[in-house]
Design brief:
Blueprint (H helix, E strand, L loop, with lengths): L1 H7 L10 H6 L17 H13 L2 E6 L11 E5 L2 H11 L3 E2 L2 E2 L3 E3 L10 H4 L19 H8 L30 E3 L1
Antiparallel strand pairs: 1-2, 2-6, 3-4, 5-6
Length: 181
């Protein structure tokens, strides 16, 4: 049954999802349409476009803050520095939601240090005006779909002797593979 439903998704035979909206992103019935209009999330739309045009993305963070210096910020970490440079050059000529896109390279190599730990624990008293990043969460399913990875391991595997292998210090110099958009 699941195979059949997957085969008719977005076609005329699909009685649940609007085939016109699926094909062209618009429907003449608008909100009155009897079928569902499956709209991609902002994160999914931006991630897909950037990865298709510029190269493999390692990480993408969308800020949910309200402060002037963080509102609307999207941080993308590309696998290759050249991809980030090309994205910045081309995105500065773009508009999104009626506003010009301001893209720049960032020296940040580890976004965990930029995030508000209190917000992650549900305890930030500063709300949207906090100076640390409050990241907009995405579902596990969307994360797997975008990044194509399964769940991460919580600890390094043990060697045959029962000890955890010693981790090497893998600090990177700021290589500007990250862009702020």
């Amino acid at each position: 049954m699941a195979e059949y439903l997957a085969s008719i998704f977005g076609t005329e035979k699909d009685k649940v999802n609007c085939s016109f909206y699926f094909k062209i992103g618009a429907c003449r019935h608008g909100d009155r349409c009897s079928r569902l209009h499956n709209k991609p999330t902002f994160s999914q739309e931006v991630f897909t476009e950037l990865q298709e045009k510029y190269g493999e993305i390692e990480e993408m963070n969308v800020c949910d803050n309200l402060g002037d210096h963080l509102v609307g910020n999207v941080y993308v970490k590309f696998r290759r520095e050249e991809d980030a440079e090309r994205a910045v050059a081309e995105l500065n000529n773009r508009w999104f939601n009626g506003q010009a896109v301001h893209a720049e390279l960032s020296p940040v190599t580890d976004f965990r240090e930029s995030c508000c730990r209190q917000y992650e624990m549900g305890e930030c008293t500063r709300g949207g005006f906090c100076n640390f990043m409050h990241l907009r969460p995405i579902s596990r399913n969307l994360r797997r779909q975008l990044y194509g990875r399964g769940p991460r391991r919580r600890s390094p595997p043990r060697s045959h002797t029962g000890h955890r292998p010693r981790e090497r210090n893998r600090r990177r110099s700021p290589d500007h593979r990250h862009g702020r958009f």
